[in-house]
Specification:
Blueprint: H1 2-9, H2 19-34, H3 50-59, E1 67-72, E2 80-85, H4 86-100, E3 111-122, E4 129-138, E5 145-149, E6 152-156, H5 171-175, H6 181-189, H7 206-218, H8 226-235, E7 240-242, E8 247-249, E9 252-259, H9 266-270, E10 273-277, E11 283-291, E12 298-311
Helix pairs in contact: 2-3, 2-4, 4-8, 6-7, 6-8, 7-8
Length: 318
C-alpha cells in the first residue's frame, strides 16, 4: 500500500511525457524486466519492485512470441546471455520509428517518392540480379502514378471508384487508420465493414491480419504514428517469432522476424522475414522466397528502401 501511495505522489508536478518519451521508457522498462537479475558483490540478491514488473508485464501480455538467446560480452571472463523476444524487437522498432519519423502533410496534388533496391538470387544457382526501382505515387490517387517494378516502368492510371488496394495509395485513407495498435488490428481484421471493437479475434483471422500489417509496413512513407502502431500491433499477433540467429543485411547485423502461420499459408511458403538492426531495432527491409512472373524459376529476394519523400511532380527527387 505504501508503494502505491509513493507511486501516486512521485513527480506529481512534473510535465507529462511526450508520446515518444513514453514509448521509449516503456520499451526500456520491458527490456529491464526481461534481462536476468544481477547479484551484487555482497551476495544478497536484489529484487525488482513488484509494481514495475506487473505494470510492464501487463502491457506485453497479449503477445505470444518465441525468443532467441544472444551472448553478450560484459567484460567478464564468462559471457552473459540475454533473452530477446519478437516483442522486444518490434516494440524497439516502434520506439525507433517514433524517434526518427518526420511529420508530413503532403498536398493532394503531390507525389510520394520511393527508391528501393531489390536483389534476387536464383535458388538453383547462377548470378544475382539487382534492381533499383524508383516510383512516384499520386497522393490523392487522382493523377497518373509512375512506378517501377524489377526495372520495368509504367504509368498507372488514377484510381477508379470502387477499386480497392492494400495498402491504400491515397494519403487520406492512410490517415483514417487508427493509431492505437489494438484498434488498428480490429480495423484490419474487418476491412471493408464496420469494426466490432468488442469482439474477440478468432484464430483463423490472425493470418490475414498479419498480412495486412506486413503490407502496411512495406509502405515507405506513412502518416505520423502509424508505423509504430503497426509494429506494436504485429508484436501481438500469435505466431510471430524471432529467428534463432542474427544475420547480416545491407551492412547491418540484424534480427529477423517471421510469422509462422497455418500449414500451407502464403507466409509459410514464402519464408518472408522482416529485418531489424540488432542494436537500434530500426526496420531495415525484408527477405523472402519468390517465383518469377510467367516462370517457375525460384529466387531468394531481399529488398530495402534507400530514399523516400514527398515531391511536386513525377521524376522529381527529394
Amino acid at each position: 500500500m505504501n508503494e502505491i501511495k509513493l507511486l501516486r505522489e512521485w513527480d506529481a508536478d512534473a510535465p507529462p511525457l511526450t508520446d515518444t518519451a513514453r514509448a521509449r521508457a516503456r520499451f526500456r522498462l520491458y527490456q529491464a524486466m526481461r534481462a536476468p537479475a544481477t547479484t551484487p558483490t555482497t551476495g544478497r540478491a536484489v529484487g525488482r519492485r513488484p509494481l514495475l514488473r506487473i505494470a510492464v508485464a501487463c502491457a506485453a501480455a497479449a503477445a505470444v512470441t518465441a525468443t532467441v538467446v544472444v551472448a553478450q560480452n560484459t567484460g567478464e571472463n564468462a559471457p552473459r546471455t540475454q533473452t530477446v523476444s519478437a516483442t522486444t524487437v518490434l516494440w524497439g522498432a516502434a520506439a525507433e520509428a517514433r524517434r526518427t519519423e518526420k511529420p508530413l502533410a503532403p498536398r493532394d496534388d503531390q507525389f510520394i517518392y520511393t527508391k528501393e533496391v531489390i536483389k534476387r538470387t536464383p535458388v538453383s544457382g547462377g548470378p544475382a540480379e539487382t534492381y533499383v526501382d524508383e516510383s512516384w505515387s499520386s497522393v490523392d490517387g487522382s493523377k497518373k502514378s509512375y512506378v517501377s517494378e524489377l526495372g520495368h516502368t509504367q504509368w498507372v492510371p488514377p484510381a477508379q471508384k470502387g477499386e480497392y488496394s492494400w495498402p491504400p495509395t491515397e494519403w487520406s485513407k492512410l490517415e483514417q487508420l487508427p493509431l492505437d495498435p489494438a484498434r488498428l488490428t480490429i480495423t484490419l481484421r474487418e476491412a471493408g465493414t464496420k469494426p466490432d471493437f468488442g469482439r474477440k479475434t478468432r484464430a483463423d483471422e490472425w493470418p490475414h491480419i498479419q498480412f495486412f500489417l506486413a503490407g502496411l509496413l512495406r509502405t515507405s512513407v506513412l502518416p505520423r504514428g502509424l508505423r509504430s502502431a503497426a509494429f506494436e500491433a504485429l508484436a501481438a499477433v500469435p505466431g510471430v517469432e524471432v529467428l534463432p540467429d542474427r544475420t547480416e543485411f545491407n551492412g547491418h547485423t540484424a534480427f529477423g522476424i517471421r510469422y509462422v502461420g497455418p500449414r500451407g499459408s502464403l507466409w509459410q511458403k514464402s519464408g518472408r522475414v522482416l529485418l531489424f538492426d540488432a542494436k537500434t531495432y530500426q526496420y531495415l527491409g525484408m527477405r523472402e522466397r519468390t517465383t518469377g512472373k510467367l516462370t517457375t524459376k525460384v529466387y531468394d529476394q531481399s529488398q530495402y528502401v534507400v530514399a523516400d519523400g514527398v515531391v511536386d511532380r513525377v521524376l522529381q527527387r527529394p
